[in-house]
Design a protein that fits this description.
Blueprint (H helix, E strand, L loop, with lengths): L11 E8 L2 E8 L10 E4 L5 E2 L5 H4 L6 E3 L10 E3 L5 H23 L4 E6 L4 H7 L2 H5 L1 E6 L7 H9 L3
Parallel strand pairs: 1-7, 7-8
Antiparallel strand pairs: 1-2, 2-3, 2-4, 5-6
Helix pairs in contact: 2-3
Length: 163
């Protein structure tokens, strides 16, 4: 599980939590002058952005690439499918580019503050490379994990209390 040892610093007012199908920006808000008011996280205006990645079945819709399977001479054989080659990796690359572009828009609309990115470890380095230069330049920290479905109180517990 993800463990953060410190809350975001004062300059780090934006945390972008994402995976290949969802971008969830949240804002860090400091405690006010009221002693009962505490630091907290809130959903960013515009909320969660669903960016469903394309599936191979949606991209390949015809019968091309199907070949007869070998079998007994007197039996009708089924059809096998041709190789997908690099289709999965290409779809993942396109999804990363869409996510990176959306994150760039969010960071820019927030005024390009120092920000934190939470993204699954397996593709985190690729996403950071795909980010627009302006967003990458103000990226303060990356955290490995897929926390897009975690309720806001649990996110506060992880990021603000270091649990």
């Amino acid at each position: 599980m993800l463990k953060v040892n410190h809350p975001p610093n004062i300059m780090e007012t934006l945390i972008v939590i994402a995976n290949l199908g969802r971008v969830r920006p949240v804002k860090f808000r400091e405690a006010g002058d009221d002693p009962q008011q505490q630091a907290h996280l809130s959903e960013y205006p515009g909320g969660i952005v669903e960016m469903r990645p394309e599936q191979i079945s949606e991209v390949v819709t015809d019968q091309a690439g199907r070949f007869p399977q070998s079998g007994a001479v007197d039996r009708l054989g089924g059809m096998s499918y041709g190789e997908e080659h690099n289709l999965k990796s290409e779809l993942e690359k396109q999804a990363l580019e869409r996510i990176a572009s959306k994150i760039g828009e969010i960071v820019t609309s927030a005024g390009s503050p120092a920000w934190r990115l939470v993204f699954p470890q397996t593709v985190l380095p690729s996403l950071v490379k795909a980010l627009p230069a302006a967003a990458r330049n103000c990226l303060a920290e990356t955290v490995a994990g897929d926390l897009t479905s975690i309720p806001l109180p649990e996110l506060e517990e992880r990021f603000l209390n270091g649990n």
